[in-house]
């Protein structure tokens, strides 16, 4: 048994790939889909040089409209090192699943990198990492186990205020319902779920949970916006694309590539949208992200880009028709209920009111009968 790792489920040993080293970490069926390569820095300032996605995605303009204030992103990953200068005041108290007594600190670096890409504060102009949503909060759920723990982690971050969940992990297989309990719970609570589609080095197609209904599966493109088949998988479940090739952060100055990074950037954009439009349902946030994406070569959806490369400015400014259901489908069975603008079901309140009314009428009838005796 690997030190610091609890009992694991049966099956092949999964791993996070980081800096070229394969590190055993989580139980069978759960693999982070990010691979780091030792790429030489392009300049004396590799971190800032690697943040080409800021210009590529037009984030300077997007930040004039939203910086993610008030939004919490649940990060189910390897934990987060909250003491980094770029994460000052960005990370909420987290938890590990299952609890092994180590807390949510990140020994692998993967989760910390995702946190920086999503909500890095950019502590100075020279070498700080500025995330997509630099005023959002990260709620880390450190994953030590397998599918059951992923479900528990998703439920926990949802219960503790996350309205966006980032899953830069995958099972290595497709169309498995192993994570449906957590995904369904998130959908029932009006949460946007973003997941890495999978890496071509280890996966043959879009893996679960990215391929599940309602989940924003993200593929990776390079700094020119071109899909990179040697990096990212493709498949009909891909919903969006985002930069995921040769990215650097203050936590990992060596350039990394993978759909983990791409998913983190999309989670940050989802936070920008939720902050600017706090009354939008998760379904309408997804509709904004997919409906405004920049589709290379024309309109429509394909297996490499999905609906296109995520466009933060478009998602924050475009006139997007409202929808009443997630355009990517859902694991939640549709019922004859109404959903308010906040995404919370109305029927429980209506039902409660009817019950209270019936009780009141019964009391009145009873009292009248008593007084008539």
Automatic annotation (TrEMBL):
GO terms for biological process: proteolysis. This is S8 family serine peptidase. Pfam families: Peptidase_S8. The active site is at residues 77, 110, 260. Keywords: Hydrolase, Membrane, Protease, Serine protease, Transmembrane, Transmembrane helix. The chain crosses the membrane at residues 346-367. Residues 68-308 form the Peptidase S8/S53 domain. Belongs to the peptidase S8 family. GO terms for molecular function: serine-type endopeptidase activity.
